[in-house]
Design brief:
It is a single chain. This protein is an alpha/beta fold. The protein has a single domain (about 1-165), classed as MoaB/Mog-like domain (Molybdenum Cofactor Biosythetic Enzyme, Chain A, 3-Layer(aba) Sandwich), CATH 3.40.980. It is built from six helices and six strands; from the N terminus they run H-E-H-E-H-E-H-E-H-E-E-H. Strands 2-1-3-6-5-4 form a six-stranded mixed sheet, sandwiched between helices. Strand 5 and strand 6 (about 130-135) form a beta hairpin.
């Protein structure tokens, strides 16, 4: 167990991307919660953006993040549902060089405990693109809080350590 906990104090650079057709930086509670939790855990938010739920906007901001070597973790919020307008997962998952299916599985289990059967319909996912880990979360503030406090922040140091080996 100590081997898996040795690098959890790593300070990582995060990008927070909100995918929404209606939110602004003033009205975006999910992004505010994400930034607060990330910084409270000792990490640094290097970028915070809001884009429309459109493939091209999501792709363009991702290109910007990919060029920034200070960003190791990309957290998206929004666009993980099953409606025609939800584009995040269908845009980003094909770019994953490695998929992290355990993240989505565990997140859906936690969501089920919180909101019932609706929690299993989330397409939340995670994967690695080059030297960055990407977490695609639903847009709700509770989903962001749960994913960060229960899964992402407790294990990000070990994940990044493994990615760098």
């Amino acid at each position: 167990m100590n081997e898996h906990r040795r690098d959890q104090k790593v300070a990582a650079g995060f990008a927070v991307l909100i995918v929404s057709d209606s939110r602004t930086k003033e009205t975006d509670e999910s992004g505010k919660i994400a930034k607060e939790l990330i910084e409270k855990a000792g990490h640094i938010v290097k970028a915070y953006d809001i884009v429309k739920n459109e493939n091209s906007q999501i792709e363009n901001i991702f290109k910007k993040y990919a060029e920034n070597s200070d960003i190791r973790v990309i957290l998206t919020s929004g666009g993980t549902g099953v409606s025609k307008k939800d584009k995040t997962v269908s845009t980003l998952a094909p770019l994953f060089e490695q998929s992290l299916p355990g993240f989505g599985e565990h997140f859906r289990r936690l969501s089920y405990e919180d909101v019932g059967v609706a929690g299993i319909y989330s397409r939340s996912t995670a994967g690695i693109i080059k030297k960055q880990v990407v977490f695609c979360l639903p847009g709700s503030k509770n989903a962001v809080r749960t994913a960060l406090t229960e899964i992402i922040l407790p294990g990000i140091g070990h994940l990044l350590w493994e990615m760098d080996r």
